[in-house]
Amino acid sequence: MVSCLCCSxxxxxxxxxxxRSTPLQALQLLGxxxxxxxxxxxxxxxxTLLFMGPLFEMGIAEGRWRNWVRGKTLVQTLRSxxxxxxxVAGPITEEITFRSIIIVINLMAKMSPGRxxxxxxxxFGIAHINHFYETKLAQPDTPLxxxxxxxxxxxxxxxxxGWYATFLYLRTGSLLAVMLVHSxxxxxxxxxxxxxxxxxxxxxxxxxxAAKFDEDENIFGRVDEATGIGWSVAYxxxxxxxxxxxxxxxxxxxxxxxxxxSFSSKMH
Length: 268
Hints:
Layout: H1 2-18, H2 23-29, H3 37-50, H4 52-61, H5 65-70, H6 72-78, H7 81-108, H8 113-119, H9 121-126, H10 130-138, H11 144-172, H12 175-188, H13 206-213, H14 229-249
Pfam families: Rce1-like (PF02517)
Domain CAAX prenyl protease 2/Lysostaphin resistance protein A-like: 81-187
Family: Belongs to the peptidase U48 family.
């Protein structure tokens, strides 16, 4: 975090002195000011729509809602180094680096909004390829192909998330909004796209957990109880309904007077 802060200060200095901007304008470009509480709320709501299915499975089918309401899940998660890394340190440092700093440099270089959205997240995706080396180092006997496939898969979904986070950042001008969205996405993982809802397994597949989080699955406990078919039907209805709502609210919920750039209805 210290290195991120130093980079932010250096970028702030560069914007003010080389970009001929006022300190307040520099803070706005970096996403630090104004905080934008409405933008934070709308961005979080939009992302929640996308994860309606997974949140239903975790909260209702697995019964985690009680711990959510009591704040127990938050406390338990932040007590572990893994939880702190995945939901606090990771989102903060990565969004400062790959959104706040990199995007503002490209804005000053007069890059088009569409190119910023689709090209700058490649840095974010490439930064996660190091897990290939880490896996081979920790598990030298693991065949090369599965590790390579997992690394490419990780590069793909981190890049896709980067597209979304970059779009949110440009549309809302709020760094805190993309940090919170990043934490939520880390918590939810990738949605279940097949299979029956069961309370005995977490929403993320074993592959996703191993590739991204390596979390202790006992943080929330496990219940070996199968659910009725109705739970699975409800899950998939909510999953696809959420995707539909996300699609229709994608532009309205990201509309903001604090936007860093102006998009047309379709990006070029």
